[in-house]
Amino acid sequence: MEYLWLNPQGLVPALVVDQDLIITQSFAILEYLDERYPERPLLPEDLRLRAKVRSFAQIAVADMNPLNIVRVFRYMRDQMSVPYDARRQWFEHWAHKGFAAMEWMLAQESENDFAFGHTPTLADVCLVPQIHNGLATKLDLSDYPNLRRVYRSCLSLSSFQAAAPETQSDTVGKL
User: Fold this and answer.
1) For the chain: N or C, fewer Cβ within 10 A?
2) What domains does the chain contain, in order, with CATH numbers?
């Protein structure tokens, strides 16, 4: 019940900045952190590149994640009696749609270490959980060499390693 005071949806995440500011929703939190700590920007200065980064990130946050999260699968199973194979087909369909679009976007860029340059951006931060989820569920990612390259670059950084789900004290069971 206490968590509902932080986030009335009862979902994660919720960032408690102080007693007057609690931010929910991943993208809002990421943008707040980007603006709060400008010395390590998540958005490029270039307006056109910033738009590309936001578009890429939104594929993960707005198009893929809402369709591929545990609460959706539990609802499909418990409330709609959707069998496992159909839920798996749903997951694979929407994951591949999103990954294919992101792979196409990266193919238009030069082969950078990260999605849109030589340092991580909001695009990388939003991509990594989707790739992690794909790997954890044994999704075939062989058609996405650019996404896999960017994922490897991100995982080479200690900040991404420290943020991995398996390193979090509140991770419950298998993802």
Assistant:
1) N
2) 2-36 (no CATH), 47-167 (1.20.1050.10)
